[in-house]
Amino acid sequence: MKIALITIICLVLLLNIFPSFFARLAAPGYSWCGRCKFPWKFVKSHRTDYSPSRGVFPLCEKCWEELATPEARLPYYKELYDSWEKDPNCWDEIKNAVMNDR
Ligand SMILES: [Zn+2]
After folding, report:
1. Any idea what DSSP says for residue 60?
2. 18 falls in which pLDDT band (50, 70, 90)?
3. What is the pTM of this model?
4. Less Cβ crowding at N or C end of the chain, within 10 Å?
């Protein structure tokens, strides 16, 4: 009985400390926001178009707005770009789109 109570308390604490971790467990197969780490199943992505037919979304709408400036947002775009296995050679286009507040 005591162990069950301790287990429940620990789970509640972990849920409060690492909510995005549990959200990712509940959304297998989804990628997530680079800042808050919540999967796209639970937060809306902010799409940044860097060409007429191509867009990228490293941040959710809430994080994109909270970061407020292109300079604060840019590292999340770079981190996503650097994670791509193939280099699509479009960093300049992405950077221009971010700096133009898109
Ligand atoms: Zn976010």
Report:
1. B
2. confident
3. 0.83
4. N
